[in-house]
TrEMBL record:
Species, as recorded: Streptomyces varsoviensis
PANTHER family linked: ALDEHYDE DEHYDROGENASE-RELATED
Keyword Oxidoreductase included in the entry's annotation: yes
The name this protein goes by in its record: Betaine-aldehyde dehydrogenase
Pfam families documented for this protein: Aldedh
Keywords, sorted A to Z: Oxidoreductase
Gene3D superfamilies for this protein: Aldehyde Dehydrogenase, Chain A, domain 1, Aldehyde Dehydrogenase, Chain A, domain 2
Length: 480
């Protein structure tokens, strides 16, 4: 059965019958035919979500029952782990080990983590200056939430939005990226099977059209979006018309600082994983490497050797270490960025071209290491979202904070050092939502996730997501 829309508990084709093909980025083969939601479908989904918001079947259940529904969803994800991992790999391209160990495992963990929060969302009593008056606060659902997800980790990012939204008692409309809708469709089927009432979770697939319509819709109370900074700015402008609340996790250009005292072999291994997870299609990927000049040649040579030795191939092949980029369009964008770097004078140490031979049918790009890079080059300034690793030298540790912060982005950063003073000072100096010391940039359900500057607004995950999905109401009670 081809993927359809879920609106008010009913699986249906788009109102106008429109649809589009989904493709395997490793081969270009069609993996499915997906419904293309239109404005009528958006209106219907918003109406269904608004009805479910106050329906006793959802609004009247206990926090403990909400927790059981989320926990059951986590169990179903784990029961279908292999199916979901293979579907994620066929649709997105990531190696099967990443799909299984990061995407599926992370999705289950987010539902389980927020199941624990359902019974712990509480208000507080505060003393006020009025005599004989008790004041307390309540945390209540924001309302109908539009959750718009990207194509790089579609399953896990859908989970990290849906789980806290439901834990707080909201209803949601999920709109996955048109490039990778299939695991989100399957996730919503599992949520339905877990027993979540009709209309609480609605699904709209399609391109930018239904996303824009959701953001502009007066019946939507909140938007949570993960994607590009350009689209994030567009969403902010649209939300301003009716003052709906956005949470935005946007682009990144994460610096990785390799100090003179760093274990170079460990830094090479960790930075390679931090830069090339999911072929570099990660907002927090390490994408500019500042190396002490005394170690830069050693680091660059070892990084290039390790990158060139990685095995490219289809994600379903267990031997694959680097999968394809998500689409032909994105492949062309990454290649154009590399060409621009060469034109500006950067030296290609390894890579610099799409894969040839048996991999030509897919969207494969060879991991590319640049040397001789300056701070003003496009490969250092622009988010390429691919396997591109520019290496820069530094002479004075005092220059690291300003150089790392010389970007419009501020999502993540890394520091590689054996010295705790260096680690703590740089972690304080760098303006980013997350700083990883001697490790790759992998988020966790219990820790805040989000960025400074053009990397977004607000935080997801951990207890911080409860702020995004609840309103605080003050209640004043005169006892006289």
């Amino acid at each position: 059965m081809r993927p359809r829309l879920l609106i008010g508990g009913r699986w249906t084709e788009a109102a106008d019958g429109a649809g589009f093909a989904s493709h395997d980025p490793a081969s270009g083969a069609v993996t499915g035919w997906v419904a293309e939601a239109g404005e009528a479908d958006v209106d219907a989904a918003v109406t269904a979500a608004r009805v479910a918001l106050t329906d006793p079947a959802w609004a009247g259940i206990s926090a403990a029952e909400r927790a059981r529904l989320l926990w059951r969803t986590a169990e179903l994800i784990e029961e279908h782990a292999q199916e979901l991992a293979e579907l994620e790999t066929r649709d997105q391209g990531q190696p099967i080990g990443v799909a299984r160990g990061v995407s599926v495992a992370g999705a289950a963990e987010h539902f389980r983590y927020y199941a624990g929060w359902c019974t712990k969302i509480e208000g507080a009593v505060a003393p006020v200056n009025f005599p004989d008056t008790v004041h307390y606060t309540r945390r209540e659902p924001v309302g109908v939430c539009a959750l718009i997800t990207p194509w790089n980790f579609p399953l896990m990012i859908a989970a990290w939005k849906i789980a806290p939204a439901l834990a707080c008692g909201n209803t949601v409309i999920v709109k996955p990226a048109e490039q990778t809708p299939l695991t989100t469709v399957r996730l919503v089927e599992l949520i339905e099977r877990a027993g979540v009432p009709a209309g609480v979770v609605n699904l709209l697939t399609g391109g930018p059209g239904p996303g824009r319509a959701l953001v502009a819709h007066a019946g939507v109370d909140k938007v949570s979006f993960t994607g590009s900074t350009a689209v994030g700015r567009e969403i902010v402008r649209a939300c301003a018309d009716n003052l709906k609340r956005p949470t935005l996790e946007l682009g990144g250009k994460a610096p990785s600082i390799i100090a003179a005292d760093a274990d170079i072999d460990a830094a090479v291994e960790g930075n390679l994983r931090g830069a090339l997870l999911n072929s570099g299609q990660v907002c927090a990927a390490y994408t500019r490497f500042y190396v002490d000049r005394r170690r830069v040649d050693e680091f660059t040579a070892k990084l290039a050797a390790a990158a060139s030795a990685l095995r490219l191939g289809p994600g379903l092949d267990p031997a694959t270490e680097i999968g394809p980029l998500v689409s032909a369009e994105h492949l062309a964008k990454v290649d154009a960025g590399v060409r621009c770097g060469v034109a500006e004078g950067a030296e290609v140490v390894t890579g610099g071209a799409r894969a040839a031979g048996a991999l030509e049918e897919g969207h494969f790009y060879r991991p590319t290491v640049f040397a001789g890079v300056r701070d003003d080059m496009s490969v250092v300034r622009d988010e390429l979202f691919g396997p591109v690793l520019p290496v820069l030298a530094y002479d004075d540790p005092e220059e690291l904070g300003p150089r790392a912060n010389d970007t419009e982005y501020g999502l993540a950063a890394a520091v590689w050092t054996r010295d705790l003073t260096t680690a703590h000072r740089l972690a304080a100096d760098i303006r980013a939502g997350a700083v990883f010391v001697n490790m790759p940039p992998v988020p966790d359900s219990a820790a805040p996730w989000g960025g400074y500057k053009a990397s977004g607004w607000g935080r997801e995950m951990g207890k911080y997501a409860l702020e995004a999905y609840t309103e605080v109401k003050g209640v004043w009670m005169h006892l006289g």
